Protein backbone atom coordinates (compact mmCIF):
# COMPACT_ATOMS: atom_id res chain seq x y z
CA UNK A 1 0.00 0.00 0.00
CA UNK A 2 2.92 2.31 -0.57
CA UNK A 3 2.31 5.38 -2.74
CA UNK A 4 3.11 4.87 -6.41
CA UNK A 5 6.06 7.27 -6.40
CA UNK A 6 7.75 5.40 -3.55
CA UNK A 7 7.29 2.05 -5.26
CA UNK A 8 8.69 3.51 -8.47
CA UNK A 9 11.73 4.84 -6.66
CA UNK A 10 12.38 1.42 -5.08
CA UNK A 11 11.89 -0.25 -8.44
CA UNK A 12 14.37 2.10 -10.12
CA UNK A 13 16.89 1.60 -7.31
CA UNK A 14 16.83 -2.19 -7.16
CA UNK A 15 15.24 -3.74 -10.23
CA UNK A 16 17.03 -4.06 -13.57
CA UNK A 17 14.32 -4.35 -16.24
CA UNK A 18 14.90 -6.50 -19.34
CA UNK A 19 15.05 -4.73 -22.71
CA UNK A 20 14.82 -1.34 -20.97
CA UNK A 21 16.99 1.72 -20.65
CA UNK A 22 16.86 1.69 -16.86
CA UNK A 23 18.08 5.26 -16.38
CA UNK A 24 15.10 6.55 -18.34
CA UNK A 25 12.83 4.69 -15.92
CA UNK A 26 14.47 6.45 -13.00
CA UNK A 27 13.15 9.75 -14.35
CA UNK A 28 9.79 8.54 -15.60
CA UNK A 29 8.89 5.74 -13.19
CA UNK A 30 7.58 2.39 -14.39
CA UNK A 31 3.83 1.90 -14.56
CA UNK A 32 2.91 -0.45 -11.75
CA UNK A 33 0.36 -3.11 -12.70
CA UNK A 34 -1.49 -4.41 -9.68
CA UNK A 35 -4.37 -6.59 -10.93
CA UNK A 36 -5.82 -7.98 -14.14
CA UNK A 37 -9.04 -9.61 -15.29
CA UNK A 38 -9.96 -10.74 -18.79
CA UNK A 39 -8.15 -8.31 -21.10
CA UNK A 40 -7.98 -5.46 -18.59
CA UNK A 41 -5.03 -4.44 -16.44
CA UNK A 42 -5.37 -2.18 -13.41
CA UNK A 43 -2.47 0.00 -12.32
CA UNK A 44 -1.52 1.41 -8.92
CA UNK A 45 -3.36 4.65 -9.72
CA UNK A 46 -6.60 2.81 -10.48
CA UNK A 47 -6.43 3.19 -14.28
CA UNK A 48 -7.96 0.41 -16.38
CA UNK A 49 -5.85 -0.48 -19.39
CA UNK A 50 -6.82 -2.68 -22.32
CA UNK A 51 -3.92 -5.10 -22.81
CA UNK A 52 -3.82 -5.62 -26.57
CA UNK A 53 -0.54 -7.54 -26.21
CA UNK A 54 -1.72 -10.29 -23.82
CA UNK A 55 1.29 -9.50 -21.60
CA UNK A 56 4.15 -10.61 -23.84
CA UNK A 57 1.95 -12.40 -26.42
CA UNK A 58 1.13 -15.07 -23.87
CA UNK A 59 -2.07 -14.60 -21.85
CA UNK A 60 -4.21 -16.45 -24.39
CA UNK A 61 -7.11 -17.36 -22.05
CA UNK A 62 -7.12 -13.90 -20.45
CA UNK A 63 -6.25 -12.84 -16.93
CA UNK A 64 -7.84 -13.90 -13.67
CA UNK A 65 -9.01 -17.45 -14.28
CA UNK A 66 -9.49 -18.98 -10.83
CA UNK A 67 -9.32 -22.53 -12.19
CA UNK A 68 -5.61 -22.16 -12.87
CA UNK A 69 -4.95 -20.73 -9.42
CA UNK A 70 -6.82 -23.64 -7.84
CA UNK A 71 -4.98 -26.27 -9.88
CA UNK A 72 -1.65 -24.66 -8.97
CA UNK A 73 -2.51 -24.57 -5.26
CA UNK A 74 -3.69 -28.19 -5.31
CA UNK A 75 -0.54 -29.32 -7.12
CA UNK A 76 1.70 -27.40 -4.74
CA UNK A 77 0.10 -29.14 -1.78
CA UNK A 78 0.24 -32.58 -3.35
CA UNK A 79 3.63 -32.55 -5.08
CA UNK A 80 5.18 -29.08 -5.44
CA UNK A 81 8.30 -30.35 -7.11
CA UNK A 82 9.90 -33.43 -8.39
CA UNK A 83 12.37 -33.82 -11.23
CA UNK A 84 12.09 -35.83 -14.39
CA UNK A 85 15.78 -36.82 -14.54
CA UNK A 86 17.15 -40.30 -13.85
CA UNK A 87 14.09 -42.42 -14.57
CA UNK A 88 11.50 -40.61 -12.46
CA UNK A 89 8.29 -38.97 -13.60
CA UNK A 90 4.95 -37.72 -12.24
CA UNK A 91 1.31 -37.53 -13.25
CA UNK A 92 1.10 -33.86 -14.42
CA UNK A 93 4.00 -34.27 -16.85
CA UNK A 94 2.58 -37.54 -18.20
CA UNK A 95 -0.87 -36.04 -18.70
CA UNK A 96 0.43 -32.87 -20.36
CA UNK A 97 2.74 -34.78 -22.70
CA UNK A 98 -0.07 -37.07 -23.85
CA UNK A 99 -2.33 -34.06 -24.41
CA UNK A 100 0.32 -32.20 -26.43
CA UNK A 101 0.94 -35.28 -28.57
CA UNK A 102 -2.80 -35.37 -29.28
CA UNK A 103 -2.96 -31.67 -30.23
CA UNK A 104 0.27 -31.44 -32.22
CA UNK A 105 0.09 -32.14 -35.95
CA UNK A 106 1.60 -35.12 -37.74
CA UNK A 107 3.86 -37.44 -35.81
CA UNK A 108 5.08 -34.86 -33.30
CA UNK A 109 4.60 -37.15 -30.33
CA UNK A 110 7.26 -36.53 -27.70
CA UNK A 111 7.99 -33.49 -25.58
CA UNK A 112 11.25 -32.32 -24.00
CA UNK A 113 10.46 -29.67 -21.37
CA UNK A 114 12.15 -26.43 -20.44
CA UNK A 115 11.31 -23.46 -18.25
CA UNK A 116 10.95 -21.01 -21.15
CA UNK A 117 11.07 -20.54 -24.90
CA UNK A 118 14.74 -19.54 -24.75
CA UNK A 119 15.67 -22.72 -22.93
CA UNK A 120 13.60 -24.78 -25.35
CA UNK A 121 15.45 -23.30 -28.31
CA UNK A 122 18.75 -24.04 -26.56
CA UNK A 123 17.52 -27.63 -26.31
CA UNK A 124 16.77 -27.57 -30.04
CA UNK A 125 20.30 -26.47 -30.94
CA UNK A 126 21.80 -29.35 -28.98
CA UNK A 127 19.08 -31.81 -30.01
CA UNK A 128 19.44 -31.40 -33.78
CA UNK A 129 23.24 -31.53 -33.58
CA UNK A 130 23.08 -34.62 -31.37
CA UNK A 131 20.55 -36.19 -33.73
CA UNK A 132 22.91 -35.83 -36.70
CA UNK A 133 25.91 -37.00 -34.67
CA UNK A 134 23.95 -40.09 -33.64
CA UNK A 135 23.11 -40.57 -37.32
CA UNK A 136 26.84 -40.70 -38.04
CA UNK A 137 27.02 -37.15 -39.47
CA UNK A 138 28.61 -35.03 -36.71
CA UNK A 139 29.76 -32.41 -39.23
CA UNK A 140 26.11 -31.62 -39.93
CA UNK A 141 25.91 -28.93 -37.27
CA UNK A 142 24.97 -25.62 -38.92
CA UNK A 143 21.61 -24.07 -38.12
CA UNK A 144 20.15 -21.51 -40.49
CA UNK A 145 17.83 -18.84 -39.15
CA UNK A 146 16.66 -15.43 -40.31
CA UNK A 147 17.72 -11.84 -39.78
CA UNK A 148 15.48 -9.91 -37.42
CA UNK A 149 14.18 -13.15 -35.87
CA UNK A 150 13.70 -13.42 -32.12
CA UNK A 151 14.12 -16.87 -30.58
CA UNK A 152 15.04 -15.94 -27.01
CA UNK A 153 17.70 -14.24 -24.90
CA UNK A 154 20.01 -17.02 -23.75
CA UNK A 155 23.32 -17.13 -25.57
CA UNK A 156 22.15 -20.06 -27.73
CA UNK A 157 18.66 -18.84 -28.54
CA UNK A 158 19.90 -15.27 -28.92
CA UNK A 159 22.36 -16.57 -31.50
CA UNK A 160 19.54 -18.27 -33.38
CA UNK A 161 17.81 -14.92 -33.32
CA UNK A 162 18.88 -12.41 -35.91
CA UNK A 163 18.57 -9.13 -34.08
CA UNK A 164 21.65 -7.02 -34.65
CA UNK A 165 21.12 -5.02 -31.46
CA UNK A 166 21.32 -8.24 -29.47
CA UNK A 167 24.32 -9.58 -31.36
CA UNK A 168 26.18 -6.36 -30.60
CA UNK A 169 26.23 -7.23 -26.89
CA UNK A 170 27.74 -10.15 -25.04
CA UNK A 171 29.41 -12.30 -27.64
CA UNK A 172 26.72 -13.62 -29.96
CA UNK A 173 26.21 -15.40 -32.25
CA UNK A 174 27.89 -18.65 -31.28
CA UNK A 175 29.62 -20.40 -34.22
CA UNK A 176 27.78 -22.30 -36.94
CA UNK A 177 24.59 -20.26 -36.95
CA UNK A 178 23.80 -18.48 -40.23
CA UNK A 179 21.07 -16.00 -41.07
CA UNK A 180 19.19 -15.35 -44.29
CA UNK A 181 16.90 -12.41 -45.06
CA UNK A 182 13.30 -12.28 -43.84
CA UNK A 183 10.29 -12.27 -46.20
CA UNK A 184 9.46 -8.67 -45.36
CA UNK A 185 7.97 -7.37 -48.60
CA UNK A 186 6.57 -4.08 -47.26
CA UNK A 187 9.95 -2.65 -46.26
CA UNK A 188 12.34 -4.63 -48.42
CA UNK A 189 10.36 -5.65 -51.50
CA UNK A 190 10.77 -2.44 -53.49
CA UNK A 191 8.84 -2.62 -56.77
CA UNK A 192 8.75 -6.42 -56.85
CA UNK A 193 5.64 -8.55 -56.91
CA UNK A 194 5.05 -9.82 -53.33
CA UNK A 195 4.78 -13.48 -54.38
CA UNK A 196 7.95 -13.28 -56.50
CA UNK A 197 9.66 -11.63 -53.58
CA UNK A 198 8.48 -14.39 -51.21
CA UNK A 199 9.93 -17.01 -53.55
CA UNK A 200 13.22 -15.16 -53.85
CA UNK A 201 13.53 -14.86 -50.07
CA UNK A 202 12.77 -18.58 -49.61
CA UNK A 203 15.36 -19.45 -52.24
CA UNK A 204 18.01 -17.75 -50.12
CA UNK A 205 17.72 -20.85 -47.96
CA UNK A 206 18.62 -23.06 -50.90
CA UNK A 207 21.50 -20.76 -51.84
CA UNK A 208 22.82 -20.85 -48.27
CA UNK A 209 22.56 -24.65 -48.11
CA UNK A 210 24.39 -24.93 -51.45
CA UNK A 211 27.05 -22.50 -50.27
CA UNK A 212 27.69 -24.37 -47.01
CA UNK A 213 27.11 -27.85 -48.41
CA UNK A 214 23.98 -29.76 -47.37
CA UNK A 215 26.15 -32.20 -45.42
CA UNK A 216 26.90 -29.33 -43.01
CA UNK A 217 23.34 -28.11 -42.47
CA UNK A 218 21.41 -29.61 -39.56
CA UNK A 219 18.28 -27.48 -39.45
CA UNK A 220 16.40 -24.35 -40.41
CA UNK A 221 14.47 -22.51 -37.71
CA UNK A 222 11.73 -19.92 -38.17
CA UNK A 223 8.47 -18.75 -36.70
CA UNK A 224 5.51 -19.46 -39.00
CA UNK A 225 4.83 -15.72 -38.66
CA UNK A 226 7.68 -13.67 -37.29
CA UNK A 227 6.32 -12.04 -34.11
CA UNK A 228 8.77 -9.83 -32.22
CA UNK A 229 10.41 -8.95 -35.54
CA UNK A 230 7.24 -6.94 -36.24
CA UNK A 231 4.52 -9.48 -37.14
CA UNK A 232 5.97 -10.09 -40.58
CA UNK A 233 3.33 -12.11 -42.44
CA UNK A 234 5.10 -13.84 -45.34
CA UNK A 235 3.73 -13.88 -48.90
CA UNK A 236 1.81 -17.11 -49.66
CA UNK A 237 4.63 -18.33 -51.88
CA UNK A 238 7.19 -18.37 -49.06
CA UNK A 239 6.47 -21.38 -46.86
CA UNK A 240 5.73 -23.99 -49.56
CA UNK A 241 9.12 -23.17 -51.07
CA UNK A 242 10.90 -23.37 -47.70
CA UNK A 243 9.23 -26.73 -47.07
CA UNK A 244 10.30 -27.98 -50.52
CA UNK A 245 13.91 -26.94 -49.87
CA UNK A 246 14.06 -28.56 -46.40
CA UNK A 247 12.65 -31.78 -47.86
CA UNK A 248 15.04 -31.74 -50.83
CA UNK A 249 18.17 -31.42 -48.67
CA UNK A 250 16.96 -33.40 -45.66
CA UNK A 251 17.36 -30.30 -43.49
CA UNK A 252 15.29 -30.50 -40.28
CA UNK A 253 12.62 -27.84 -39.94
CA UNK A 254 12.12 -26.26 -36.52
CA UNK A 255 8.94 -24.17 -36.24
CA UNK A 256 9.21 -21.75 -33.34
CA UNK A 257 5.60 -21.73 -32.14
CA UNK A 258 6.28 -19.75 -28.96
CA UNK A 259 4.00 -16.93 -30.17
CA UNK A 260 2.04 -18.66 -32.97
CA UNK A 261 1.06 -21.69 -30.88
CA UNK A 262 -2.10 -22.33 -28.86
CA UNK A 263 -4.66 -20.54 -30.96
CA UNK A 264 -2.96 -17.28 -31.87
CA UNK A 265 -3.33 -17.78 -35.65
CA UNK A 266 -6.76 -19.48 -35.56
CA UNK A 267 -5.45 -23.04 -35.32
CA UNK A 268 -3.78 -24.81 -32.43
CA UNK A 269 -0.43 -24.18 -34.11
CA UNK A 270 0.82 -21.66 -36.66
CA UNK A 271 2.29 -24.58 -38.62
CA UNK A 272 -1.27 -25.68 -39.38
CA UNK A 273 -2.30 -22.20 -40.54
CA UNK A 274 0.78 -21.85 -42.76
CA UNK A 275 0.66 -25.50 -43.85
CA UNK A 276 4.14 -26.41 -42.59
CA UNK A 277 5.28 -29.87 -41.51
CA UNK A 278 7.99 -29.24 -38.91
CA UNK A 279 10.25 -31.88 -37.33
CA UNK A 280 10.33 -29.93 -34.08
CA UNK A 281 8.06 -27.24 -32.63
CA UNK A 282 9.23 -24.87 -29.90
CA UNK A 283 6.44 -24.06 -27.45
CA UNK A 284 6.09 -21.74 -24.42
CA UNK A 285 3.96 -18.65 -23.63
CA UNK A 286 0.37 -19.69 -24.58
CA UNK A 287 1.07 -23.23 -23.36
CA UNK A 288 0.25 -21.99 -19.85
CA UNK A 289 -1.19 -18.63 -20.93
CA UNK A 290 1.74 -17.22 -18.95
CA UNK A 291 0.27 -18.33 -15.59
CA UNK A 292 3.34 -20.50 -14.91
CA UNK A 293 6.73 -20.60 -16.62
CA UNK A 294 7.03 -23.53 -18.99
CA UNK A 295 8.42 -24.22 -22.46
CA UNK A 296 9.35 -27.23 -24.50
CA UNK A 297 10.21 -28.89 -27.77
CA UNK A 298 7.69 -31.26 -29.38
CA UNK A 299 9.62 -33.65 -31.61
CA UNK A 300 8.72 -36.03 -34.41
CA UNK A 301 8.91 -39.81 -34.14
CA UNK A 302 11.90 -39.76 -36.50
CA UNK A 303 13.93 -37.62 -34.11
CA UNK A 304 12.58 -39.23 -30.94
CA UNK A 305 13.60 -42.68 -32.16
CA UNK A 306 17.22 -41.59 -32.55
CA UNK A 307 17.35 -39.47 -29.40
CA UNK A 308 15.75 -42.18 -27.27
CA UNK A 309 18.52 -44.52 -28.32
CA UNK A 310 21.18 -42.42 -26.58
CA UNK A 311 21.52 -40.52 -23.33
CA UNK A 312 20.99 -36.83 -24.12
CA UNK A 313 23.13 -35.03 -21.54
CA UNK A 314 20.82 -32.09 -21.27
CA UNK A 315 17.99 -30.96 -18.99
CA UNK A 316 16.82 -28.29 -16.61
CA UNK A 317 15.88 -28.51 -12.93
CA UNK A 318 12.46 -27.29 -13.97
CA UNK A 319 12.03 -29.57 -17.03
CA UNK A 320 8.46 -30.81 -16.60
CA UNK A 321 7.84 -28.87 -13.38
CA UNK A 322 4.69 -30.42 -11.84
CA UNK A 323 2.98 -27.12 -11.01
CA UNK A 324 3.68 -25.66 -14.45
CA UNK A 325 2.49 -28.87 -16.14
CA UNK A 326 -0.73 -28.95 -14.11
CA UNK A 327 -1.40 -25.29 -14.90
CA UNK A 328 -0.65 -25.83 -18.61
CA UNK A 329 -3.01 -28.81 -18.74
CA UNK A 330 -5.82 -26.79 -17.17
CA UNK A 331 -5.11 -23.96 -19.62
CA UNK A 332 -5.42 -26.39 -22.55
CA UNK A 333 -8.68 -27.70 -21.10
CA UNK A 334 -10.10 -24.17 -21.03
CA UNK A 335 -8.88 -23.40 -24.56
CA UNK A 336 -10.50 -26.60 -25.79
CA UNK A 337 -13.77 -26.66 -23.82
CA UNK A 338 -14.53 -23.00 -24.36
CA UNK A 339 -13.74 -23.37 -28.07
CA UNK A 340 -11.39 -20.40 -27.89
CA UNK A 341 -9.33 -21.47 -30.92
CA UNK A 342 -12.54 -21.82 -32.96
CA UNK A 343 -13.61 -18.33 -31.88
CA UNK A 344 -10.33 -16.94 -33.20
CA UNK A 345 -10.90 -18.74 -36.50
CA UNK A 346 -14.59 -17.99 -37.00
CA UNK A 347 -16.00 -15.32 -34.72
CA UNK A 348 -14.05 -12.76 -32.73
CA UNK A 349 -10.94 -13.33 -34.90
CA UNK A 350 -12.60 -12.18 -38.15
CA UNK A 351 -14.23 -9.29 -36.23
CA UNK A 352 -10.82 -8.09 -34.97
CA UNK A 353 -9.37 -8.53 -38.46
CA UNK A 354 -12.05 -6.32 -40.00
CA UNK A 355 -11.49 -3.57 -37.42
CA UNK A 356 -7.73 -3.87 -37.70
CA UNK A 357 -7.66 -3.67 -41.48
CA UNK A 358 -9.84 -0.54 -41.31
CA UNK A 359 -6.93 1.20 -39.56
CA UNK A 360 -5.17 1.15 -42.96
CA UNK A 361 -7.39 4.15 -43.82
CA UNK A 362 -5.52 6.26 -41.29
CA UNK A 363 -3.07 8.69 -42.97
CA UNK A 364 -0.19 7.43 -40.82
CA UNK A 365 -0.71 3.75 -41.69
CA UNK A 366 0.89 2.17 -44.75
CA UNK A 367 -0.42 -1.35 -44.24
CA UNK A 368 -2.54 -3.14 -41.67
CA UNK A 369 -2.08 -6.90 -41.73
CA UNK A 370 -3.32 -9.60 -39.41
CA UNK A 371 -3.66 -13.37 -39.15
CA UNK A 372 -5.85 -14.81 -36.42
CA UNK A 373 -5.19 -12.46 -33.52
CA UNK A 374 -1.68 -11.27 -34.34
CA UNK A 375 -1.49 -8.09 -36.36
CA UNK A 376 0.74 -5.19 -37.30
CA UNK A 377 0.49 -1.68 -38.69
CA UNK A 378 3.34 -0.17 -40.68
CA UNK A 379 3.57 3.55 -39.91
CA UNK A 380 4.62 5.65 -42.85
CA UNK A 381 5.10 9.32 -43.74
CA UNK A 382 3.99 8.53 -47.32
CA UNK A 383 1.52 5.74 -48.05
CA UNK A 384 2.07 5.42 -51.80
CA UNK A 385 5.83 4.90 -51.71
CA UNK A 386 5.78 2.75 -48.53
CA UNK A 387 8.38 5.17 -47.14
CA UNK A 388 9.65 4.73 -43.60
CA UNK A 389 10.52 7.39 -41.06
CA UNK A 390 14.18 7.17 -42.00
CA UNK A 391 15.57 10.17 -40.16
CA UNK A 392 15.08 8.75 -36.69
CA UNK A 393 13.88 5.19 -37.07
CA UNK A 394 11.53 4.00 -34.35
CA UNK A 395 10.47 7.49 -33.32
CA UNK A 396 7.02 7.27 -34.87
CA UNK A 397 6.43 3.84 -33.34
CA UNK A 398 7.66 5.00 -29.97
CA UNK A 399 5.44 8.08 -30.02
CA UNK A 400 2.44 6.00 -31.07
CA UNK A 401 3.06 3.47 -28.31
CA UNK A 402 3.29 6.31 -25.77
CA UNK A 403 0.02 7.76 -27.02
CA UNK A 404 -1.64 4.32 -26.75
CA UNK A 405 -0.37 3.94 -23.21
CA UNK A 406 -1.71 7.39 -22.29
CA UNK A 407 -5.06 6.31 -23.79
CA UNK A 408 -5.09 3.13 -21.66
CA UNK A 409 -4.23 0.77 -24.48
CA UNK A 410 -1.15 -1.46 -24.50
CA UNK A 411 0.22 -1.89 -28.02
CA UNK A 412 3.84 -2.65 -28.70
CA UNK A 413 6.04 -0.97 -31.26
CA UNK A 414 8.82 -2.67 -33.20
CA UNK A 415 10.60 0.16 -34.96
CA UNK A 416 7.78 1.90 -36.79
CA UNK A 417 5.44 -1.08 -36.73
CA UNK A 418 2.62 -1.26 -34.19
CA UNK A 419 1.70 -4.69 -32.92
CA UNK A 420 -1.39 -6.32 -31.41
CA UNK A 421 -1.71 -9.77 -29.92
CA UNK A 422 -4.57 -9.56 -27.41
CA UNK A 423 -5.85 -12.31 -25.14
CA UNK A 424 -7.84 -14.66 -27.39
CA UNK A 425 -10.92 -14.16 -25.21
CA UNK A 426 -11.28 -10.49 -26.16
CA UNK A 427 -14.96 -9.67 -26.83
CA UNK A 428 -16.41 -7.71 -29.74
CA UNK A 429 -17.10 -4.71 -27.48
CA UNK A 430 -13.50 -4.78 -26.31
CA UNK A 431 -12.32 -5.04 -29.92
CA UNK A 432 -14.35 -1.87 -30.69
CA UNK A 433 -12.63 -0.11 -27.79
CA UNK A 434 -9.24 -1.35 -29.00
CA UNK A 435 -9.84 0.00 -32.50
CA UNK A 436 -11.18 3.36 -31.23
CA UNK A 437 -8.24 3.89 -28.90
CA UNK A 438 -5.79 2.84 -31.61
CA UNK A 439 -7.27 5.34 -34.09
CA UNK A 440 -7.25 8.16 -31.50
CA UNK A 441 -3.63 7.33 -30.61
CA UNK A 442 -2.64 7.39 -34.28
CA UNK A 443 -4.30 10.80 -34.63
CA UNK A 444 -2.39 12.16 -31.65
CA UNK A 445 0.88 10.60 -32.87
CA UNK A 446 0.38 12.23 -36.30
CA UNK A 447 -0.03 15.65 -34.64
CA UNK A 448 3.06 15.11 -32.50
CA UNK A 449 5.12 14.01 -35.48
CA UNK A 450 4.28 17.25 -37.28
CA UNK A 451 5.44 19.37 -34.32
N1 LIG B 1 10.73 -17.71 -29.47
C1 LIG B 1 9.88 -16.73 -29.81
C2 LIG B 1 9.28 -16.75 -31.16
C3 LIG B 1 9.56 -15.72 -28.91
O1 LIG B 1 8.74 -14.73 -29.27
C4 LIG B 1 10.14 -15.75 -27.62
C5 LIG B 1 9.82 -14.71 -26.63
O2 LIG B 1 9.26 -13.68 -26.93
C6 LIG B 1 11.03 -16.78 -27.32
C7 LIG B 1 11.29 -17.75 -28.25
C8 LIG B 1 11.70 -16.83 -25.99
O3 LIG B 1 10.81 -17.25 -25.02
P1 LIG B 1 11.09 -16.92 -23.48
O4 LIG B 1 10.98 -15.44 -23.33
O5 LIG B 1 10.02 -17.69 -22.77
O6 LIG B 1 12.44 -17.41 -23.16
TrEMBL record:
Belongs to the class-III pyridoxal-phosphate-dependent aminotransferase family. Gene3D superfamilies: Aspartate Aminotransferase, domain 1, Type I PLP-dependent aspartate aminotransferase-like (Major domain). PROSITE patterns: AA_TRANSFER_CLASS_3. Keywords: Aminotransferase, Pyridoxal phosphate, Transferase. CDD domains: OAT_like. The keyword Transferase applies. InterPro entries: Aminotrans_3 (IPR005814), Aminotrans_3_PPA_site (IPR049704), PyrdxlP-dep_Trfase (IPR015424), PyrdxlP-dep_Trfase_major (IPR015421), PyrdxlP-dep_Trfase_small (IPR015422). This is Putrescine aminotransferase. SUPFAM superfamilies: PLP-dependent transferases. Its cofactor is pyridoxal 5'-phosphate. NCBIfam families: PRK07480.1. One of its GO terms (molecular function) is transaminase activity. GO terms for cellular component: cytosol. Pfam families: Aminotran_3. It comes from Roseovarius lutimaris.
